[in-house]
Specification:
This protein is an alpha+beta fold. The protein has helices at about 5-25, 45-60, 75-85, 95-100, 130-140, 180-190, and strands spanning about 25-30, 40-45, 105-110, 110-115, 120, 125, 155-160, 175-180, 195, 200-205, 215-220, 225. It has one domain (about 40-225). The protein is about 35% helix and about 20% strand. Strands 1-2 form a two-stranded antiparallel ribbon. A two-stranded antiparallel ribbon has the order 3-6. Strands 4-5 form a two-stranded antiparallel ribbon. Strand 4 and strand 5 form a beta hairpin. This is HNH nuclease domain-containing protein. One of its GO terms (molecular function) is zinc ion binding. It holds the Pfam family HNH. It comes from Actinopolymorpha pittospori.
Length: about 230
């Protein structure tokens, strides 16, 4: 009370020193890999933790009940899935399915190799789905993931080729759709089919184990028609 300015200055220095020690004590280590999983140990300062939570929390929200069923994941599982989505598919080795998914929105350099692996012909890099095309897809599909009932914002989405690029699909807006990573993986691995409807918007066909009739779902109005 006698010298409040001096007290504030001392408290400020104490906080700065505490933050400095916290930064110096940051650690990250990896446990052994067993059965395809591993443990990560992290010790973070408060500021870094706040940044991480700010990135993870929007991705870790419970998904609304939709055609793929209710979200029954635990909070820990949702955070782990959000962390995986944040990192993206950057690890190796990758399965053929993962490579096809990555090829949906990537820069591909086509190359012709000889039997000894020597490069015979190197094509020019092709940027798949330009920024302008993504803007159009977002405008067309409501500025969010186009999967039925999903409302992940378009900045968290990936551009998916309705007909896969590796199968000859064109990189144009009529063959593109924005999907969050979770539903992008769903399309590639769980039997869902996405196609462009006559109304100029994507529509979805669930696998038989979800709907034996495979009624077509139009995400713009959530109506269904028979296939």
């Amino acid at each position: 009370m006698i010298a409040p300015e001096d007290a504030e200055r001392r408290i400020g220095k104490q906080l700065e020193e505490q933050e400095r020690r916290a930064r110096e004590n940051r650690t990250l280590s990896f446990g052994p890999v067993r059965d395809g999983t591993a443990t990560v140990f992290m010790r973070l300062d408060v500021q870094t933790l706040a940044l991480l939570r700010a990135l993870l929390d929007p991705l870790a929200r419970t998904r609304p009940t939709g055609p793929d069923g209710p979200d029954l994941r635990t909070s820990e599982r949702r955070l782990a899935d959000a962390f995986a989505e944040l990192l993206g598919l950057a690890g190796h080795p990758l399965s053929a399915t993962a490579v096809r998914q990555l090829a949906c929105d990537a820069e591909i350099v086509p190359a012709v190799l000889g039997s000894d692996g020597a490069v015979l012909d190197l094509g020019t890099a092709t940027r798949l789905f330009t920024y302008a095309q993504r803007l159009y897809l977002g405008l067309r599909d409501g500025h969010h993931c186009s999967f039925p009932t999903c409302r992940r914002p378009e900045q968290w989405t990936e551009a998916h080729h309705i007909r896969h690029w590796v199968d000859g699909g064109k990189t144009d807006v009529g063959n593109g759709v924005l999907l969050c990573q979770y539903h992008h993986t769903t399309i590639h691995t769980k039997g869902w089919i996405v196609r462009m409807g006559d109304h100029g918007h994507p529509e979805y066909i669930p696998p038989p184990w979800i709907d034996p009739y495979q009624a077509v779902i139009r995400p713009d109005d959530l109506t269904t028609i028979r296939r």
